[in-house]
Design goal:
The complex is a heterodimer. By secondary structure, chain A is an all-alpha fold. Chain A has a single domain, classed as Urease accessory protein UreF (Orthogonal Bundle), CATH 1.10.4190.10. Chain A contains ten helices and no strands. In chain A, helix 3 packs parallel to helix 9, helix 5 crosses helix 6 and helix 5 runs parallel beside helix 7. Chain B has one domain: Rossmann fold (3-Layer(aba) Sandwich), CATH 3.40.50. Chain B has a seven-stranded parallel β-sheet with strand order 3-2-4-1-5-6-7, with helices on both faces. Classes of the chains: A mainly alpha, B alpha/beta. The interface between A and B is medium-sized, with 21 and 22 residues.
Amino acid sequence: MDYDEIEQEIGIMQLSDSFFPTGLFATSNGLEFMFSEKTIQDASDLIKIIQINITQQIGPTDCVALAEVFDAVEDNNFEKIIEVDNATFATKSIKEIRDASIRSGIQLIKCVTEFVKDNKILNQYQGNILENNVRGIFPVAFGICCNALKIKKEKSMAMMLYGFSVSVVGAALRLGLIQHFEGQKIIHKIKPIIAQTIQENANRTLSDMWQFAPQMDIVQMSHEKMDSKMFIT
Amino acid sequence: MTHIPRIGIGGPVGSGKSMLIERIVPMLAKKGYSLSIISNDVISKEDADRMRNNLATEKGLLPENLVIGIATGGCPHTAVREDPSMNLSVIEEMETKHSDLDLIIIESGGDNITTTFSPILADYFIYIIDVAGGDKYPRKGGLGIESCDLLVINKIDLANQIGADLEIMKRDAIKIRKGRPFEFINCKTDEGVTKVVEHIVHDVLFDTQPKSLVIK
């Protein structure tokens, strides 16, 4: 039995656990607005929404950023990490989502540096956050933390996409859109979408980064302006 | 980064958390203390908007941008205890940009009697309940009532109307608090509120002068 591998697997569990403090439990990614406007009705609609988010937004942007971070760490290229941090920041056109991504990223780094003390890039990234040289955007911070915990690139991408899916499904559950068994069925149905997205984006570079989900952008902007809401957009 | 003292105020929905803040802020501001308010809300930003309007826009006691609303995704206790990331992040931004502040007040979203604040988030925890919930409230206990630094029992003016016995509440509070402080207040008339302010000045600010009055 490979005990090092078991330790890495536990690291995956730790960072993927909703108990891990990143503040993402408070986000719905626009779902709350669609729910209030009755443009989303049931579990099948929810799967489509998550699929659009994964394939059109997070996959080609955040996953690419995360992949680039892994390559940059391998090359010990911190300048590249700064470049990825800036490029990923520029893709977050919705202010609340942009702010939440930075706040979560910074808190993630702060938390992991509490128990990982000997990782050069992790420490360097935290130092650069404090000096305002990097923003600490979540996908970059997540890639650095996964790397520090010796989690492989593709598995880290799976964790990020899984975490996103769970946060949206969790929001749907709290809104009363679905019940708890449906939530798990949805997560199960999303697994191949996550796997496919990883396959498509794991080897893309920064110049291939893109996103196109204009209707989701409008929904998220509308959510941002809602007077009465439970979730950060 | 400067650590600015932080008070967490938690309590059930409608117990008077926002009202208490609206009462203590003018008293603290009158003493010269500079404050900021972070209002966690289960739904809507109404409390933050109201406090911003009343305390900042109308009375000018603090800048409007120092009253901040945080949506908690329906999990108020998570936002101040298990995963205070968003609150901490806002506080860190504030500590960087506004190191001249004397105090940050963090209001929890309305929650149940098990609410507590993460010790990394709040240096001092005030839990507020109200008489309208019945005189059994202190006796029932719960983490909030038992473990807070100061228990505040609000709306004492309603005791007669709802048949609550304040003496019973006092007896039970003494017993369950094991000698730790509690205060009866009425936010509508400010009765007892000065006592809460005294606790804050003494126990949180250690009777120090406001930063604005300290000669550098």
